[in-house]
Hints:
Bound molecules: inosinic acid
Mean pLDDT: 92
CATH topology: Maf protein
Number of strands: 7
Helix content: 25-40%
Radius of gyration: 18 Å
Strand content: 15-25%
Number of domains: 1
CATH architecture: Alpha-Beta Complex
Largest sheet: 7 strands, mixed
Amino acid sequence: MRPHLTQDEKKGMKKLVFATNNSHKLEEVRAMLEEAGPEVASRYEILSLSDIGCDVDIPENGLTFADNALRKAEYVKVHYNIDCFADDSGLEVRALGMEPGVRSARYASEEGFDHNNEANTEKLLRNMEHVKERQAQFRTVIVLLMDGFKEEFEGICRGEITRKPIGNKGFGYDPVFMPEGHTVTFAEMAMEDKNAISHRGKAVRQLVNFLTSH
Ligand code: IMP
């Protein structure tokens, strides 16, 4: 992990906000920048929402992942005037018309459970009880607003929904998602193995490649 930066080191760096307070996601992006090499890592200082004093829960009620990511990035750009990127992800199940999609985090909210991983997973399995075709995919979209332009990066991970939850690692729908070409669910995989093939890992790698070549 990157040691704490001194004021001198921060001086020449470009400030880039990641519109999240999810420490796991922040660490993942910082680590991938480090992996890309000291030259690129030393050019960007990645800040979280709390680093810039933003404690607003930016609404995610857009119709697409790209909409939601753009709204979050624009919020930071407009209110704080700092270059920014934001992400939005979710699960799309073919037999359910690509639901839960942008509603992945609040899928079971009609039943009184908001942002409740277990209730979401239970509802998904219930809705798929008699479904044979179980193809699904996770999708992440990252929108970057930097130097006056907008870039979009997308990562998709295909797989299928299992008949019951398996494994206890990860979060969200991980216990019921078995990625293509694997015989274990995301919730049975080590984090590094999941990141290597996951939707978020793919989108973040594209972002890092872009920052490297920019
Ligand atoms: P977020 O936009 O990354 O916060 O994801 C929104 C919702 O999608 C989460 O609350 C989860 O329900 C679901 N989700 C996104 N990525 C994953 C993942 O890697 N594993 C399991 N569920 C995920």
